[in-house]
Give the backbone structure.
Amino acid sequence: MAELRDKFNRTIDYMRISVTDRCNLRCVYCMPYDGLRLIEHKEILSYEEIVRIVRIASGLGVRKIRITGGEPLARKDITSLTSSIKDIPRIEDLSITTNGILLEKYAEKLIESGVDRVNVSLDSLRTERFKEITRGGDINVVLRGIETARKSGLLPVKINMIPIRGLNGDEIKDFARITLNSDYHVRFIEFMPFGSRGFWSADKYIPRDEIKAIVETLGTLTPVRVRKNGPSKYFRLKDAQGVIGFISAITHHFCEECNRLRLTSNGKLKPCLFSETEIDLKPALRGGAPDNEIERLLRLAIEIKPERHNISDRSDLNIFQAMSQIGG
Ligand code: SAM
Ligand code: SF4
């Protein structure tokens, strides 16, 4: 079977695809209140175009796909995309990252369409605070969505939390405790300098080691191996059913293990989350290019994949696009 390696000998088998830059929430750390300048509809890749890219990428060695956004479940008829992707024989793993607002409605349909797992972003367990962070979201809707996903078999359900000092940093222990009596994977993600212009600042950022030390006040963390570990390192609290992960893009580079490419909703390949260089697939897709031309562009993106990002060395840290535009 084809295997794709970059020049640093990393296997590239994972593609994260943003299917929309639109969202039904406005998280304070991700988007400005009045939203971002949205990409025009005609510029957004159609499902047919996305499926074609995945089919060609799968011929090169891509095996895992994650659908993200904006809010992917808010794009019309999303399960027709997921089922077409799952029909591509070499795609082994299909997952979605969602804010959970539409999960209760979609969980069953997602699983029927071939989705294997979901990651749900949840940044507070307190009703009022959740509403403030998301600028209007109802936490009960998300909690019901998470529970429905678990019951439907979209397993493991991963809950992603971004601890931000002065916003929700005091809830780290509450999130870790979720794992004591349920088999969720709770993952703490370092706050990165993306999104709402000016919102990120060094004093709001809580480094991974500090997050981990707070969790450890609940008890010893024993390392555990979780299949398809990805960039998160997993641990378990004593007698806990679920596991806890720490994703650290800034303090602990995960670049050595990076196996992914990103595709934005308007058809740009990003070799790295932090890349300012993008490869635009749309002119080729819409200009009638044959598959081998798309394949050449995919290979080019892998060829220019940097060995590591350098954001910890940069002083202009509020420079990046919003995650809703890249796909997280
Ligand atoms: N709307 C979906 C959601 O919220 O899960 C999918 C898209 S969202 C952009 C993907 C992920 O990016 C979410 O887990 C979100 O918390 C994360 N994210 C957004 N801005 C971020 C930032 N500045 N630093 C770290 N993660 C961020
Ligand atoms: Fe929307 Fe997800 Fe960004 Fe929140 S983090 S505004 S849910 S895209």
The radius of gyration is 19 Å. The CA atoms of residues 57 and 275 lie 20 Å apart. Residues 47-60 form the longest helix (14 residues). The longest strand covers residues 93-98.
